[in-house]
Amino acid sequence: MIGYIVKRLLLAVPTLWAVLTIVFVLARVLPGDPAQTILGDQATQEALVAMRHRLGTDKPIAEQYADFLANAVRGRWGDSLVTGKPVLEEVGKVLPYSIDLTVSAIVLGALIGVPLGTWSALHRNAAFDYIARLGSLLGLSFPAFVSAIMLLLAFAIELRWFPVIGAGGSGPWERLRAITLPTVNLGIIMAAYVTRVTRSSMLEVLGEDYIRTARAKGVPSRVILWRHALRNALIPVVTVVGLYLGILIGNSVLTEIVFNRSGLGKLIVSALDQRDYTVLQGMMVVYAFAIVLVNLLTDLTYGFIDPRIKRQ
Amino acid sequence: MPEPMLEVAGLRKFFEVKRGFPRATTVTVRALDGISFTVGAGQSFGLVGESGCGKSTAGRAVLRLIEPDEGRVAFKGEDVLAAGKERLRALRRKMQIVFQDPYASLNPRRMIGKALTEPMRVHGVGAPGERVARAELLLAEVGLPKNAMTRYPHEFSGGQRQRIGIARALTLEPELIVADEPVSALDVSIQSQILLLLQGLQERRRLSFIFISHDLGVVRYFCQSMAVMYLGRIVETGPIPAIFKEPLHPYTKMLRDASPVPDPTRKVAMLRIEGEVPSAVNPPAGCHFHTRCPHAMEICRKAYPEWTPLGDGRGVACHLHKV
Amino acid sequence: MTESIAAVPVERPAAAHWLLQLRRAFNANATSWVGLVVFLVIVALALLAPLIAPYDPLDQDIISRLEGPSAAHWFGTDSYGRDTLSRLLWGARLSLVIGSVSILSAMLIGGTIGIVSGYVGGKFDLVVMQAMDVLLSFPSLIMGLMVVAMLGPSMGNLIIAIALTAIAPFARIARAPTIAVKERDYIEACRALGYSDLRIMAVHILPNIMAEILVMGSLWLATAIRTEASLSFIGLGVRPPVATWGGMIREGFENILDSAWLSIFPSLAILLVVFSLNMLGDGLRDAIDPKLRGGE
Amino acid sequence: MSAATEAPLLELDGLVTEFRTGGAWHAALRGVSFALARNETLALVGESGCGKSVTALSIMGLLPPANSRIAAGRIRFAGRDLVGLSEEAMRKLRGNEISMIFQEPMTSLNPVLTVGFQVAESLRYHRGMEGQAARRAALELLDQVKIPAAAQRFDDYPHQFSGGMRQRVMIAMALACRPKLLLADEPTTALDVTIQAQVLALLAELKSAYGMAMIFITHNLGVVASIADRVAVMYAGAIVETAAVDELFARPTHPYTEALLRTIPRVDEDSAGLAAIPGQVPPLSAMPPGCRFAPRCALREAECEATDPALAPLPAAADHRVRCRVRAPATAAPRHA
Q: C206-210: long-range contacts (C-beta < 8 A, 24 or more apart)?
């Protein structure tokens, strides 16, 4: 298993290399001279030259590229052009908030979506099924900032159950209160996706020959559902959760803005505003890495769910 | 023996397949491991064997729908495997294929008339009006009414679709048809309709057939000679009457005796040999059949038997029949 | 053959042409009709915006700013006193144009990549799909963000950015059914009949996957409109004072404590468009999906 | 054998099963009746759509409830009528007293559960066996169906088995609770001929060892000749001819049976004249009135297209019954459906 993980990570190297290259190119074409950005409009010509030298942007482009790759691999992503602190530190500071939010959203989404989708499949074409289908369709139609604003209006501004801004104070209770609305916002949209996939995958599985075999054996229907059907039905759900991460990241950017919660999303928006290209580079790498990692996790999960993949 | 329409020699095709998790290993499927046979003009040659023996691969390799790794295919003396793009296109007019599954062999979004005139258009045969007339004639020849021209495949039954598939194969006036299990997917009463249709076409048009089937009864009825394949190799070949009278290879005999006959006094031989059937991924050493052979000897485990020609077009690869 | 077959029994109603396939899918599903009608109404309103909008969307009126809904301003006014309803109608044009142009381009480019890659197969397919995976490893909103930041926020650039995020998905959408169709015997028959690869792809594969691609197109149009709104909300949309839904919500959000309606009306508008497109596409997908219908 | 004098194990009486297509109910079975004695093997033979699988699924109570129903008739099994039995009561019968095996061994086993577990499952729900006891019993079953090295393969998954081996697993599963009746729906159709011969041998052997009755569904008359005691030929939802296996093959009487036998190219002799049955089986929604086979029948008379004949015994052999007013005219009393 460890050998496999190593091999998979090695396979991700070309992807990461391509990602880094794109990031490098993007950063170079971004309008604005980084040196100018740091020193401001009143900088003297000498200061600019010195700054360019310090940043390495005066070197030939090929050399910059080589430096960039070497540094990226060693985790030296440079210093923020705005705060002057190392990018790794800037990203590391907000990363836990984003991980908290993402993980809790995925958990919430799965906890709501899987039972709802299963129930809906079992009552195909009944009233409940229609409501669940339409409801989930509505759920995934929400732009994340729209639903966030509505949650904010209802629960923070009108009802005042939750704080209007921020990731909360230091205590666990405060943190929980602060993360609840963002989690609900992301989790419900995700639950909508999971519900739909679970439903259609469950319907497909329930029509399979082996379900008929289990019925022909006299296995109680409850057992058929849980032991025979659900595990097979979850295989596509895992795929969707994996694919959903890209959407989730985008949605969490919007959610963080609305709830004014620190995290990668807020960081990337402010870095864009301030043309802080070293931070942007670092963040692109983090995002790409996260997606590669999740793809790996998805594949490993298949291995555990589906014996056809596990052994041969 | 009439002049050969098709000569195949030493045809080989290996597939590489990646399998396994977490660590994938590459395995080689020896789908075709050097097969040779000859189809006489106006003759039907049966290619027989069980699933995974390589008979379908052989049919497709002959037509270069799958590129073989090695070997020689000569159509009326012309080297098919060496043909360039243009020659191959010309050869395709002469060699056609009929498929097993009538539900997969027709484009569901294409009207029958289009499907039948398209080959002529692509190859620049006839004027547009003529093409339609010829397509209608072809439909009549396979027993379908003219109004089928303006219908779509889903409006036809399996047997009718098979007729359309045959008509399509005939559009370019081919001389050789590879029929890949053309009746296996059909109901019994439809099977015989199609067999009779093919037989009539063969007589009228002097067609040659490579008739691929797992059903010995159908091959016995339709073909003049046949080859039996096992795990990528031909184990026995010869004229139909001789093989059915006295199969030489133990596998041929096993196949014949296991084929059910509609006669309660001749029940199928209930085989005592159990165990897993080996696959072309990892064929047993020596004679591939020795693991299931009732006559297996020491030598069978070690060496693959050489091909032994026996005269009258017969030949066998078995240590029991060494000259 | 003497036997003639007079009657040709119809086994199962399956649509022949892909347009018929779509029409049948519509008829099988009431929600798709509802989605289509709502969407067409929105399109009509957007097209008629110059005629029916009560005010010029850019006209400022300092006296009546941040007014709630009234008979004069059904949906109220913003902080410059501009009429929200008029801005909504004009904003719809922008959203629809950006969404449809970007998705049509992505469909064309990505679809072609997917069909060719799936049909050619082998190493070529492997490399192309690896490249698509690289594109997919940027979260789409982040990619849109970067591209707009790089090119500058204008309508053309937004179209490019959104199209870029949808090319890789469309390549995948087109590739999967291409591979499934490629395996079918009738494609092998085409090769045996000496048809060129281009003919096989254009005449025999494309019509078989067309309905699927169009249906996915309607779902992705919903996504594109959402992405455009999101980018505008972040501040990377078409520059003010042009009315964009995302931008209106952004302005409303700044006044959320006292003038909530400012963000609510454009929010509902986006929701309505996206929901109608999702209803349209989702119902059709159910009707077209061979897995739920049981084979061709 | 005293089987003939005993009460039959299974008795179908005028079974009508209907399916809903396009808003209307169409009969897939139009009054199917037969009796099956203990230890007897009845072959149901016919082409696709003739209703042979629907018969088996009706007996098992496994018809899809959304679009099918038993509209009339009775299914008496060991003294009980199965029609209208509660789902829970049917569940207790299934896999216990009546078992079924299916055509597609590749898709009939659950891919994510081990083979051993799936075999042990019937024992768990019908015999209350758990843990080691269930494992031992299941292992014994796998041995009985001659899975090589069953102990090592117990914890393998279905995809690690070949088609023939999977069908053996299906058989082991079906026989776990020693059922009185085994329904085998085309169990060898998906298999190669040599594997088919092995599975047929295994079924015949286990049937006599277990003393079960078997309904063997197939379209292959050769297989019928090899395995059946009695044969019922079905066409368009009804039995058109039934007789003991020797009698049926010696004196095929219904024009359909007769024609069918002449459409088969034989392995054991040269088939000089292969005959074809013209046309095709009519679809459920467009059944002709009168005899369903009449449009394709060479012996058709005007009256055939108006009146649907009943299944009637031949004067010479009471056990040989035929549904044809031309071939079994003496008893062809007009009956309107």
A: C206/C115, C207/B109, C207/B110, C207/C17, C207/C18, C208/B107, C208/B108, C208/B109, C208/C18, C208/C177, C208/C181, C209/C115, C209/C174, C209/C177, C209/C178, C209/C181, C210/C18
CB distance from D165 to chain B under 8 Å? Answer: yes
Residue at C86 is within a domain: no
Q: Is B26 part of the contact surface with chain A (CB cutoff 8 Å)?
A: no
**Homologous superfamily in CATH for domain D10-97+177-267+275-331:** P-loop containing nucleotide triphosphate hydrolases (3.40.50.300)
Residue B20 has its nearest CB partner, among A1, A5, A312, at A312
Pair of tokens at residue C51: 């005629």
Split at pLDDT 50, 70, 90, the class of B23 is low
Residues of chain B with Cβ-Cβ distance to D149 below 8 Å are none
Q: Which chain C residues are closer than 8 Å to B97 by Cβ? A: 188-189, 192
Interface of D with C (CB under 8 A): 276, 278-280, 282-283, 286
Residue ranges of domains in chain A, CATH in brackets? 16-73 (no CATH), 94-311 (1.10.3720.10)
Using a pLDDT cut of 90, give the percent of chain A over it: 31
Whether residue B22 and residue A311 make contact (CB cut-off 8 A), yes or no, is no
3 state DSSP class of A164? coil
Choose among B119, B144, B200: nearest Cβ to C5.
B144
Q: For residue B187, give the nearest of D47, D198, D261 by CB distance.
A: D47
Question: CATH no. for residue C215?
Answer: 1.10.3720.10
CA distance C212 to A82: 48
- All CATH 3.40.50.300 domain ranges of chain D, comma separated, are 10-97+177-267+275-331
With bands split at pLDDT 50, 70 and 90, how would you rate the model's confidence at D330? low
* C16 with B108: Cβ contact below 8 A: yes
Which structural domain, as residue segments, surrounds residue C104? 15-47+94-238+266-288
Indicate whether C254 belongs to any domain. no
Global pTM? 0.87
Number of independent structural domains in chain C: 1
Of D276, D279, D283, the CB nearest to C11: D283
Give the separation between CA B240 and CA B251, rounded to whole angstroms: 16
Say yes or no for a CB contact (<8 Å) between A209 and D104. Answer: yes
CB C77 within 8 A of CB C64: yes
Position B237 scores a pLDDT of 96
The distance of Cα A211 from the centroid of its chain, to the nearest Å, equals: 35
Place of tokens 């309508």: C155
Q: In what order do the strands lie in the sheet with B4-19?
A: B25-40, B4-19, B70-75, B78-79
pLDDT digits (tens, 9 = 90+) for A142-192: 999 999 999 988 888 877 777 766 555 567 777 778 888 999 999 999 999
Neighbours of A164 (CB within 10 A): 14
Interchain contact D64–A (C-beta under 8 A): no
Of C9, C18, C208, Cβ closest to residue B157: C9
Contact A254 C234 (CB under 8 A): yes
> What Å distances lie between residue A72 and A61, A121, B190, C131, D313, CA to CA?
16, 47, 68, 21, 90
Question: Which residues in A have their CB inside 8 Å of a CB on B?
Answer: 1, 3-5, 7, 303, 309-312
> Where do the domains of chain B lie, and which CATH numbers do they carry?
4-94+174-321 (3.40.50.300)
For residues B246 and B239, is the Cβ–Cβ distance under 8 A?
no
Q: What is the mean pLDDT of residues D92-107?
A: 93
State whether residue D125 sits within 8 Å of chain A by CB: yes
